[in-house]
Amino acid sequence: MSQKEEKIKMAIVTDFMNYSLNQDHYPKSVYKFCKETEIEEKVFYKFFGSINAVKNQVWEIFYDNSMSLLEKDENFKSASSKDRLLSFYYTFFEVLLLNRSYVLFALSADEKMLNNLVQLSTLKQSFKRFATELIEDGNIDKPSYLQHPPKIFSEATWIQFCFLLKFWRDDESADFEKTDQAIEKSVQTAFDVFENTPLSALVDFGKFLWKEKFATY
Questions:
Q1: What would the pLDDT profile of 93-109 be if each residue is shown by its tens digit?
Q2: Are 39 and 17 spatial neighbours (Cβ–Cβ below 8 Å)?
Q3: DSSP 160
Q4: Among 216, 184, 214, 13, which residue's Cα sits nearest to residue 93?
Q5: How distant, in Å, are the alpha carbons of 11, 50, 185, 190 from that of 54?
Q6: How far apart are the first and last CA of the chain?
Q7: Predicted model pTM
């Protein structure tokens, strides 16, 4: 894709996000969206096949922006799997913070979203590829009988991601301190499980979740 085409595609996404926030609902159809934003339908369909495709693209852009920032850090690729996952989460939620109004709209527009994950489907594929790399790296120095199936553990990491996303959405603490704690504890727990020493971390993480659950009442 040429730079000009990429610029047009990004403009459509930006218009889509602004339209959704200003109208307090997603476009009802491609026709109405294009009419309101003065985009030719044939231009829209050059890049997207539907409104849902744009929804997916928004989250993929958040992911791509996060990875672009991480890849600028010379130490990222050589860091441990645990530190790379931590860095990803911290960076990803910083990117989301720049777009929090849209994210809150998107996560509340459909209460069942975190169950069916429709608009996160493209993000899920990208994130699971990243998680698979981390798991495969962690398996390198393990004997075969202690290695963990990347497919199973990448899915578990995706569940962790969804938990953190919902936690961040609901977090009202200053500077999202509680989300930072949740990230640290959940990643520590995940890697303790990965290293076959889960008990103390699971108890610690369980206490944290219990405290946060009842702190809201």
A1: 999 999 999 999 998 85
A2: no
A3: H
A4: 184
A5: 11, 7, 33, 32
A6: 51
A7: 0.86
